[in-house]
Design brief:
By secondary structure, the protein is α+β, with helices and mostly antiparallel strands. The protein has 3 helices and 4 strands, in the order αββαβαβ.
């Protein structure tokens, strides 16, 4: 899969999750954003929320269930914008906003 196809799947995934929950931003990060993806690469997706008001595990379950509607290559990560982290910093620096 090339970067264009990965971005298309990322956009489809964003549509699915935005119908299910309130999302601030969605980023594709990792190998596809850094142009070093291989045939075995997954599509790393960061789902940024303002605050997690429900159980984190149930939110993650929603994110994973949504991958079934789009592609098994998608690997979602939940990011709370209110809790800065090195991962979030890297996503903001190198990720592609969807």
């Amino acid at each position: 899969m090339d970067k264009r196809q990965a971005l298309k799947l990322a956009r489809q995934y964003k549509e699915v999750i935005c119908d299910q929950m309130t999302v601030v931003d969605v980023y594709m990060y990792g190998s596809y954003s850094k142009d070093c993806a291989t045939e075995q690469s997954d599509i790393d997706i960061a789902v940024v929320v303002d605050n997690i008001t429900e159980d984190v595990l149930s939110v993650m379950a929603k994110l994973w269930r949504a991958t079934r509607k789009v592609s098994s290559y998608i690997e979602p990560v939940l990011v709370n914008r209110q809790q800065p982290s090195p991962l979030f910093d890297e996503i903001l620096k190198c990720g592609i906003k969807i």
